[in-house]
Amino acid sequence: ILYGQVQSWTPNLVTGPLKQTPPNKLTEVFWGYINCLPTTAAAIILGTVPAFRICNQPEMIGWLVAIIVTFAIIFAINSSIHSFLVVKYAKADKVSVSVGFYYMSNAFGRLFGTIGSGVLYTYVGTYMGPHAGNDVTLGFIACFIAGTLCSFAAATITYFIRDDDGGLMCGNLVCVKNAEAEEEKDEAGDVEMPQN
Predict the structure, then answer these.
(1) Among the four 27, 36, 161, 173, which has the fewest Cβ within 10 Å?
(2) How far is it, in rounded angstroms, from Cα 86 to Cα 98?
(3) What is the pLDDT of residues 46-78, one digit of tens each?
(4) Where do runs of H (alpha helix) occur along 49-178?
C-alpha cells in the first residue's frame, strides 16, 4: 500500500518540483541510475560495517531496513515513471497490448530476479560447515551487486529510446537541454528581421 502511495505522489512531490513532468526517456535514465545507489551502498555497507562480520543482529537489521526502505522509495518513483512511459510510447490502437507486455515483462523480471538472487544467496560465500551452510553476508553482497548491474543495464538501454523531447531538468538546473526548443530557437533566429 505504501509503495503504491509513493507511486501516486511521485508527480506532485518528486518529478513535478524537479520540472520532470511529463517524464521522458531522460527522466527514466536519470532515476534509473539513481536506482543503482541504494544497492551499491548496500553491497559496500554489508562488506565493510563490522556488525555484519560479528553478527550484531540489531545493528544488521537497522542497516537492512534503512537500505530496503530507501531502495523501495526510489524504485516506486521509477515505477511511476515507467507506467507513464509505457502508455506514452504505446501506439494508440495497441495501448492494452503494450501495458500487458510491460506487466508480463515485469513478472518475468521478478521471477528471474527471485531465482537468480536465490542462487547467488545460496551458493556465494565461504562454506561454513554442514549446519551453518555458506556465509550469507557474501550471498547478500552478491545479490546487491547483481541488482546494481541489472539497474545500470536497464538505465543504459533506456538511453537509446528515441525521445529527447523536453530535455532533463533538476529543478531550475538544466541537465540536458530541450532539443526541440533549441531547434525552434535556431529556426526563429534564421528569420530575417525587417530593417527600419
Answers:
(1) 173
(2) 7
(3) 999 999 888 889 999 999 999 999 999 999 999
(4) 50-54, 57-89, 95-123, 136-158
